[in-house]
Write a structure and sequence with these properties.
Blueprint lengths: L2 H37 L1 H16 L3 H35 L6 H18 L14 H6 L34 H11 L1 E3 L5 E5 L6 E6 L1 H14 L3 H17 L10 H4 L1 H9 L4 H30 L10 H32 L11 H35 L9
Antiparallel strand pairs: 1-2, 2-3
Helix pairs in contact: 2-13, 3-11, 3-12, 6-7, 6-8, 11-12, 11-13, 12-13
Length: 399
């Protein structure tokens, strides 16, 4: 081997050795840096936490959004409560007595229109056992009959008989009431069923049967004349429609089948299906309005996002979530305090002004927003710490 070749090998070896030592120094420096980060981890994490709170803290603009959102949420339940009171008074003022002549005249007019529309088109099939379609249209419903009920140990409680009969249920009545009309039966809230007869007059409870036999008789009657089914549905609709706006109204649907005592208490305290329908509408309006306010505030606040000031969009979203949670919480707390204060003062009727849907929306926001904020905070702090540990890629020389 020549001297020149030896010199070249020595130079190559020196170059590789220098590269190895340089790489070792880079690794040593990086190890020292990582060790330094690990040693100061507590203070670093604290600094990251403080930085997160600084970036997500509410500034003057955010506070204005908070006040505006809170004002909207509070104004929402105040306005809805006022409308609720107005609607309640309007409903109560429009109710008629159960035996009001206007109801009878209206029913008679509608029945005459039904007869005029179908008489001559529908045959009058007579039956020894069941009423014809025309008799169904004009005769009173069997579940209004209470004569003879004491013979079977049943107390219909006079004017409160509607809460004891499934034919008066706003939902179940379309099934059981229609069946009762076709088969001339009456089905109670415990599903006991009795045959109603008009021979001899007046209509009275004749004997006890069962609900399955009631349906069997109804099917048998419909097979004789299928026009009896639409006639019975017409009669059920007419009867429910005439009862719903009376002083006593119709009972809360379905409740009497599994909690007759509660259904009776509500009905006797003048809480009927119309009150329930109104309350459902109020709660639905409360929920929709609260959600819309949150959406609008969230969208408008999002327009103020500045990527130069915040690490990422999620960090800014934390501020938005805080505004929404705080505003909903203040609104719900105000409503609870106001309702509770009035109740303590003796105003028992004030409980109807409780912002039930608003409270539910607030609870949902507190749960979901808290979870979101915690997730973003963990990512900000531990993600930042992880990036410090990771550092930049090492520029090692290839050997």
């Amino acid at each position: 081997m020549s001297v020149a070749e030896l010199r070249n090998k020595r130079n190559n070896l020196k170059t590789k050795t220098d590269a190895i030592f340089d790489n070792m120094q880079i690794i040593i420096d990086e190890s020292q840096r990582v060790a330094e980060v690990a040693h100061n981890s507590r203070s670093i994490l604290k600094n990251l936490d403080e930085e997160f709170e600084k970036q997500t803290g509410l500034n003057s603009t955010d506070v204005k959004f908070l006040f505006f959102a809170t004002a909207l949420q509070i104004g929402k339940w105040v306005v809805i409560n006022k409308l609720n009171n107005v609607i309640s008074k309007k409903i109560d003022g429009s109710r008629l007595k159960d035996n009001d002549k206007t109801i009878k005249d209206t029913e008679r007019k509608i029945r005459d229109e039904m007869k005029e529309c179908f008489d001559g088109k529908w045959d009058h099939n007579k039956s020894e056992k069941y009423p014809s379609w025309l008799e169904i249209v004009y005769d009173g419903v069997p579940f209004d009959v209470s004569i003879g009920s004491p013979n079977f140990g049943v107390n219909m409680e006079g004017g409160y008989h509607r809460v004891h009969t499934l034919g008066h249920d706003p939902i179940l009545g379309w099934i059981f009431g229609t069946m009762n009309i076709i088969s001339s039966t009456i089905t109670l809230d415990d599903f006991r069923t009795f045959k109603v007869s008009s021979d001899p007059k007046p209509k009275h409870w004749e004997y006890e049967t069962n609900v399955l036999d009631g349906f069997r008789m109804a099917i048998e009657s419909i097979k004789e004349d299928d026009k009896r089914l639409p006639a019975a549905v017409f009669a059920e609709a007419l009867h429910l429609g005439s009862d719903v706006l009376t002083k006593k109204g119709l009972p809360v649907p379905i409740l009497e089948t599994f909690s007759p005592e509660l259904a009776g208490k509500l009905y006797k305290s003048n809480y009927d299906s119309l009150c329930l329908l109104k309350d459902i509408a109020v709660v639905g309006t409360q929920a929709v309005t609260a959600i819309l306010i949150n959406m609008i505030i969230g969208l408008v606040h999002g327009l103020y996002y500045d990527p130069k000031k915040y690490s990422n969009r999620d960090v800014y979203e934390v501020k938005t979530r805080k505004i929404l949670s705080y505003s909903n919480l203040i609104s719900s707390a105000s409503n609870i305090i106001w309702v509770g204060g009035n109740a303590v003062a003796g105003n028992e009727a004030v409980w109807k002004d409780l912002d039930i849907a608003g409270i539910i929306v607030t609870m949902y926001r507190l749960i979901t927003d808290t979870k979101f904020i915690q997730s973003v905070k963990e990512e900000f702090i531990f993600g930042g710490f992880k990036n410090m540990i990771k550092g930049e890629s090492l520029s090692l020389q290839e050997v």
